[in-house]
Design a protein that fits this description.
Helix content is about 60%, strand content about 0%. With about 300 residues, it is mainly alpha-helical. Helix 5 crosses helix 10. The chain has 16 helices and no strands. The N and C termini lie far apart (about 50 Å).
């Protein structure tokens, strides 16, 4: 078992893609300077780079444990002799992986303790390929559990982790303003920079929309889609932006906010609600959850 887990850990497509990521980042930097676009800010960019390094180290143990659990689930699966590494099964896995990512990503926005681990990917007020590397640090702890059911369905962990990596590589190019719109048919089916700019918006209209990885169809089908409007430019960042670029503040600041809210509540029901309800819920103040704000603004 240990040898199988380590073999998957060492075969990391995302790390192999890092040179291409940085090459694309350099091209975007040149584009931003040539177009006089304030896409990058020095302190913000280096905060993103430090978060990237921190994420690599934080991810090690959860990934190791997650892949170990995947192998346990796979060994228990009655379907493991049915599913094979053939093209039809890879296609099935693509759709299952993409749906799994959508559910995981949506949960990161709608469950407060999960949002605390994901918010570092959103707390930059700049949108660029450096922001793409500013991953959610704390979210790594629970991430791989969401993919274990695929192993129970008979997909071996090598296939699962490979598909997860391909999905993550695809999502990198979404973090740019250099691309306006893709062809209409592509925008209808796939996640694009335009759709993902919406996801990073703090505008009421755009809050908690477009959780897609590769396919935007899940958002369209499940009611979380919003188009990017020319009439309403995206404001990047949080509804209450952070002011610090310190790594610990960027990566873990929301845990502190959540902890203070839990301590303020007297009833245990309210304490639990601060952990499991969506960000913006309050036991003694206005409801600032995204769905409530949209309803109040007449957007839903």
């Amino acid at each position: 078992m240990f040898d199988r887990v380590m073999a998957v850990m060492q075969d990391d497509l995302v790390l192999l893609a890092l040179p291409a990521f940085f090459a694309a980042l350099g091209v975007e930097l040149l584009w931003a300077k040539k177009q006089f676009r304030p896409v990058y800010e020095s302190q913000d960019f280096w905060a993103s780079m430090r978060i990237m390094v921190l994420t690599v180290f934080v991810d090690l143990l959860p990934k190791l444990g997650g892949i170990f659990l995947m192998f346990l689930c796979y060994d228990l699966s009655p379907l493991k002799d049915t599913v094979s590494r053939t093209i039809p099964w890879w296609i099935v896995l693509f759709f299952l992986d993409d749906l799994t990512y959508y559910l995981f990503h949506r949960a990161n926005h709608e469950v407060r303790w999960m949002w605390a681990g994901h918010s570092s990917h959103h707390n930059s007020q700049y949108y660029n390929l450096g922001t793409a590397l500013r991953q959610g640090v704390g979210e790594r702890v629970a991430k791989y559990l969401f993919w274990c059911p695929l192993a129970l369905l008979g997909f071996d962990p090598v296939m699962i982790v490979t598909m997860m990596s391909i999905s993550l590589i695809y999502q990198y190019w979404l973090h740019t303003e250099a691309i306006d719109r893709m062809p209409k048919w592509y925008e209808f089916i796939f996640n694009t920079p335009s759709h993902h700019r919406v996801h990073h918006g703090s505008n009421t209209r755009y809050l908690d929309r477009n959780h897609a990885a590769v396919l935007i169809i899940w958002d369209r089908l499940l009611g979380t889609f919003s188009e990017e409007l020319v009439s309403e430019p995206v404001r990047y960042g949080l509804t209450q932006n952070i002011t610090s670029q310190r790594v610990l503040d960027v990566a873990f600041g929301e845990y502190g906010n959540m902890s203070r809210d839990v301590k303020r509540a007297a009833r245990w029901q309210d304490k639990l609600a601060y952990l499991f309800k969506a960000p913006g819920w309050s036991h003694d103040g206005p409801d600032k959850r995204s769905n409530t704000l949209r309803q109040e603004a007449g957007l839903d």
